[in-house]
Amino acid sequence: MGLDLTSQLPPFEGLLPKWLLLVSVISLANSIQAYTTLHYAARMYNPNPDNTKIPSNLMQYTSPSSKPAPLQPGELPSQVTPLSGRKWGTWTALTGILRLYVAYHINEKAMFELGMWTYGVAWAHYMSEWWVFGTTRWGVPLAGPVFISTGSLVWMFLQREYYLGQ
């Protein structure tokens, strides 16, 4: 007798809990990756965003002269450092663990809402880095997280009544 993996899946009807499990496993793998390499984060964030175009309410805190010096060939973008990589890995692990719990407790209102918040915060982060701060641009590295956060958030919103009965 071998291990029956289907018995380990979330015990709920529908695909949403399985999707949350899949995304959480991918998040945990990405977290390990963030601790071991900066390559993928460096693809996401622009090497030299135009820091002179900062939001007007931040002007009092940041000098327009804060634009980083041009990078040398082969140098990593200034936004991606070992510290930022580890912070990103920690954040990703935290959201992955939370989404894992949501997958197995999707019928509990507080867990369901926390799961939605993880996708909402992720969406807000990626969109603000693209639209407000200019530290990323549209392309394959950004498309995946944007589609996953947007699609998951919409899917959870549409399935809320089904799983919570409210």
From TrEMBL:
Keywords: Endoplasmic reticulum, Lipid biosynthesis, Lipid metabolism, Membrane, Steroid biosynthesis, Steroid metabolism, Sterol biosynthesis, Sterol metabolism, Transmembrane, Transmembrane helix. One of its GO terms (biological process) is sterol biosynthetic process. It is found in: Endoplasmic reticulum membrane. The keyword Lipid metabolism applies. The chain crosses the membrane at residues 20-38, 138-158. It comes from the Eukaryota. The keyword Protease does not apply. It is a multi-pass membrane protein. Residues 56-76 are annotated as: Disordered. PANTHER family: ERGOSTEROL BIOSYNTHETIC PROTEIN 28 HOMOLOG, ERGOSTEROL BIOSYNTHETIC PROTEIN 28-RELATED. Belongs to the ERG28 family. This is Ergosterol biosynthetic protein 28. It comes from Paraphaeosphaeria minitans.
